[in-house]
Amino acid sequence: MAYVIECSGLVKRYPGFTLGPLDINIETGTITGLVGSNGAGKTTFIKLLLGLTSFDSGQISLFGNTIDCPENLSASVKRRIGVVFDTCPFPTSTRVDDAMRVGRAAYRSWDDKLFKDLASSFKLDPKKEIQKLSRGMGMKLSIAFALAHHPDLLILDEATAGLDPLARDEVLDILRSFMLDGEHTILMSTHITSDLEKIADTVICIDDGQICFSAQKDAICNEAGIARCRTDQVEAIAANWEEAPTDLHVMKHAYGTDLLVPDRFAFKKVFPDIPIDRITIDEYMNLILKGETL
């Protein structure tokens, strides 16, 4: 099994906040979603991967190359990474087609035709100034630029946040095409978890600098569920559910209690009279982060 990203015991300390220790391995040819609340540490983790800030302890390996400090992130590794942050990075006075000239100068693998094709599909006017682009169009420009130098690893930090639903679907289709050969990898940090439900393989949740869960997307969206219990049923479920997880995550409401179930099909066989629904990534995350543990 080949890993594009390998992190072991990774720690970054700030006054009042510590990220880690993190142990994260991301396999080649997969899409990993990174979720969590604002300030949880997601962007800090991405900056550590990109060598934009140093870490205090642990180890990072990219494409099999161990990175001891930001200065050791070689140009050959950097060229293999495409990045889209949540704001457009180009000077506001430049035009869309100026980005193509920047890419041509910066990357040996730069592809003018691919950039033009993506810009055209995104309806980006090559003569338009960056400052006159909407937030959504700025994100599309950043995505076109990141893909046009043929990266092996694409890192997206809230890249679809400024896009309307139709534009997000268009971007997701392009990301699917990027992944078709099985040789490319995506790390996608986002608050729009419905996007991850469409394309992710794995979901990692970071909260207060720690990994709360790392799970296959299908295990969340296709297998797990929410049992809609009466409050007085929860104790009986805990006592009679032989396959119950060590920690039961519940969220109480005025009308009853929601219970996180890892396998809704197995649960239904044991408790056929208790309604159980499929779960979204948002609901799964909220139950783990905000629910009570029994």
Q: How would you describe this structure in keywords?
A:
globular; single chain; 15 strands; 6-stranded mixed beta sheet; 294 residues; alpha/beta; 29% strand
Write the layout of secondary structure elements.
Layout: E1 3-14, E2 17-27, E3 31-35, H1 42-49, E4 57-62, E5 65-67, H2 75-78, E6 81-84, H3 96-106, H4 112-121, H5 135-147, E7 153-157, H6 165-178, E8 185-189, H7 193-199, E9 202-207, E10 210-216, H8 217-223, E11 225-229, H9 234-240, E12 249-253, E13 256-261, H10 264-270, E14 276-278, H11 281-290, E15 292-293
Parallel strand pairs: 3-8, 3-9, 6-7, 7-8
Antiparallel strand pairs: 1-2, 1-4, 4-5, 9-10, 11-13, 11-14, 12-13, 12-15
How would you characterize this protein structure?
This protein is an alpha/beta fold and 294 residues long. Helix 4 (112-121) packs antiparallel against helix 5 (135-147). The protein is globular and about 65 Å long. The chain has 11 helices and 15 strands. A hairpin with a 2-residue loop joins strand 12 (249-253) and strand 13 (256-261). The longest helix is centred in the middle third of the chain and has 14 residues, at 165-178. The strands form 3 sheets. Strands 6-7-8-3-9-10 form a 6-stranded mixed β-sheet, sandwiched between helices.
Major sheet description? 6 strands, mixed
Shape: globular
Low-confidence stretches: none
Q: Total strand count, please? A: 15
Radius of gyration: 21 Å
**Percent in strands:** 25-35%
Enumerate how many helices there are, as a single number.
11
Order of strands side by side in the largest beta sheet? 6-7-8-3-9-10
- Residues in helices, as a percent range: 25-40%
Instruction: Give the structural class.
Output: alpha/beta
> What's the SSE pattern?
EEEHEEHEHHHEHEHEEHEHEEHEHE
